[in-house]
Amino acid sequence: MEASLQYARAQDQADELKSYREQFYFPALSPAPADSPGVNTQSSDGNAQSGHAKYQIYLCGNSLGLQPKGTETCVKRFLDAWKQLAIGGYFKGEAPWMTYAQRFKEPLAQLVGARPLEITVMNTLTVNLHLLLCTFYKPKGERYKMLIEAGAFPSDQYAAQTQVRFHGYDPGDALIQIGPRSGEKVIRPEDILEAIAQHGSSLALVLIGGVNYYSGQLFDLKAITQAAHEVGAIAGFDLAHAVGNIPLCLHDEDIDFAVWCSYKYLNGGPGASGAVYIHERFSSDPSLLRFGGWGGSLAQTRFDMPEQFTPEPGADGWNLSVAQALVLAGLEASLELFQSAGIEKVRAKSIRLTGYLEFLLNQIPGKPFELITPAEPEKRGAQLSLYFPEGGKKLQAALQEAGIVVDYREPGVIRVSPAPLYNNFEDVYKFYEIITQVSPNRQGE
Length: 445
Fold this sequence. Notes:
By secondary structure, this protein is an alpha/beta fold. It is built from 14 helices and 13 strands. The protein is globular.
């Protein structure tokens, strides 16, 4: 690797996924003088050109993915059907709303390594997490504890806390939180497995994020699931930062359930429908308790309006309502791109792109931060977390002023996430140039 713009552009020329960048919109910079430091002059397809509108270098796909250019067509199709067909849009047109969600099962199943029967799109992540915990968290006798990450995303923490309270337990006793050891920033995998074994007789459920939102650490889902099953516990995962980021094998790794959102690496837009995976040994069992709704009732008798709830086979039996067609339209265009590119190729580029970012950051003399994301590619996704003992939030604002979009998370972390479908090596190199210019050490602060 070389720390040069020429090297970065050569990698982009050789990139077999380079054309996908042109399928996304990049946010424009606010008006700024042409000689402002870090101004990224690009055409609307995200390629550098002089004399055109200025666009930001967007490295925040771990928080909100960019809009695919095909999204407008999908949304307009819905609006046209509503305008022209009204209630007829439920059963007529190119994408009838009553069955619209079915077209998402196969592409999502391919992304997460599941069977279509085990996938459904519905609601949002935390709603789905609560719904599945109502099914899978079944405390009884001495087996009542739930194991989670210390410092998990607050939605997971709040869901876990309130679920154990709902069942009459004290979170201080019922929640087992596994965090990094003293002086460390990531969780040692062996500590998770040891905690599962240690609390085995009292453990009802393990709930872990596939990729930790703060550190970018990728966990070994297969090992965690196996350890949970060995002690008789259920294994569930929040894959908000994993789906569309790394290849997954949920069915073959025997994972019990998982939930995720669709607005990060899946580029479904803010408020995009979440999705769930439920292993078929559960999803094919109509007797398994769950909250029922008309949208999850047996399709062949749904319009007979039976008094008793009979669930649709598979994960669809957890749906409460008919799919939100307008919201789903934003996700359709992105999934078409993933199907075309293939998650394995996306991951291969991601490893190279994130590796180049790491290489460049390590070239910064006296860098005022610590890279806390694991260095091994198999232990991270498309994110590097830069921990700043001080000044991180101010630096993130300076980067934003210079046209670089990254985000800041307390305490002290700037998250940088080059998404391989639309980011390239030149983006990463320019980020390196600009963070070198605006870092506290350079400014003498």
